[in-house]
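Reminder: ligand-aware prediction takes two inputs, not one.
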Amino acid sequence: MITSIFILVLALAVALVKGAAIGDDEVYCEINPLQYTNSPLIIPTGGTTFLYPSYGETTLKIPAGETVDLVCPGSNLIVLGSRTEEVIQATCISNARFRILGERTLWTQVSCAGDATAKSLYTGAVCVNGGKIAEIGFSLTDGRFLSTITVCYDAVDQSPLYTYFDMTASIGNNAKGTPRPSFSQDGGFYSIGSRTVNQLYTRSVQRGTINAQIGLSATDIKYIDNGNWFFLARGHLTARADFFYPAQQNATFRYINAAPQWQSFNGLNWNEIENSVRDYADVNGVDLQVWTGVYGIATLPHESTGEDTPLYLYTATDGTTALPVPSIYWKVVYNPSSRRGVALIGANNPYDVNAADKLICTDVSSSLNWLSWNRLNITQGYSYACSVADLRRVVSYAPNLQVSGILV
Ligand SMILES: *[C@@H]1O[C@H](CO)[C@@H](O)[C@H](O)[C@H]1NC(C)=O
Ligand SMILES: *[C@@H]1O[C@H](CO)[C@@H](O)[C@H](O)[C@H]1NC(C)=O
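Here is what comes back for the chain with 2-acetamido-2-deoxy-beta-D-glucopyranose:
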């Protein structure tokens, strides 16, 4: 009771502070940042962050006289019908009217000539377990890099260990239903012979690769069938729908943000976990910090020896392996203002009937009421929740957070 009153007072205080950005009598521009699927991104002048509508709003408000950068990464803005630059400045006059390149121009009169081009770059920094830090984002010709996702990448296993991104409290009003691009393989991250990562994931190639490891014939459909659920999908670590803008959503389709994930888990309990996290940010009006990672290697029994055999999407004749099929997926969700956090975990093996006996930390899921999942269903991905510290006792590269309590 006392806590809920406190939270209410806190929420009111936050609402007042946020609302105070633009006063009642102040002149401002008000625009729909999702006007077109090819509207430019709006970022602070000279900045590298993205502007979002305030919580609960679908429009972006910019005070009169304030200047922002309009950006079409890797392309050009079309302004009043003419192709201009990759980045141009716009100063709010009022309503939807800006001064752009000296002309009074409506927000509806600007768009991007082409799709935003994302890329992944090593930063030179390192993370734990021999991982290397890479950023996924947009590289501008003026030298700026607009990062969307940070990846701790294991260049030996050729797999992300975890990814990190900031979820906006406004995620409930994000772009929905925009077309999905295919996955891109960034240069400098893979060394897998003559095949592409995309080829390794195709149903027939993954079936041949996995079957060879467990002593099945190349075409046997015992584990990887031709249906909708039992195959290894390109499992996003940071989800597409976790971002607000179509360009950011498209940028999640990089192989360094993906690992092999059984589709029955990917499309069911893991999908529910992702949805529940977005709903949490939306319902509570909070910005969240989200780390998503993998751990261990999933196994299947060898046909002749019965031995648990670790699975990879890439194996070479010299014994080299890469692109392991993770044993679990985990997601640490942290609210920096309350300093509460939780680790959500799902088992990536619909065939492991013993999944419930293999929890890596103490299950606290009974204290969470904001997840809608069939968490005990093995086909859908047996799932549970732990404290962040408890996860980190096993997964050394999980974030080291000073958490004040479980995110309830
Ligand atoms: C996102 O990708 C889809 C599919 O390739 C494309 O149609 C769309 O224009 C892209 N959006 C942006 C903003 O780049
Ligand atoms: C688990 O989920 C699968 C896939 O949705 C379903 O077919 C199956 O009946 C469920 N099992 C149980 C025990 O509820």
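The pocket of 2-acetamido-2-deoxy-beta-D-glucopyranose (ligand 2) is lined by residues 268, 377, 379-380 (CB under 6 Å). The CA atoms of residues 29 and 94 lie 5 Å apart. We will return to this case in the review session.
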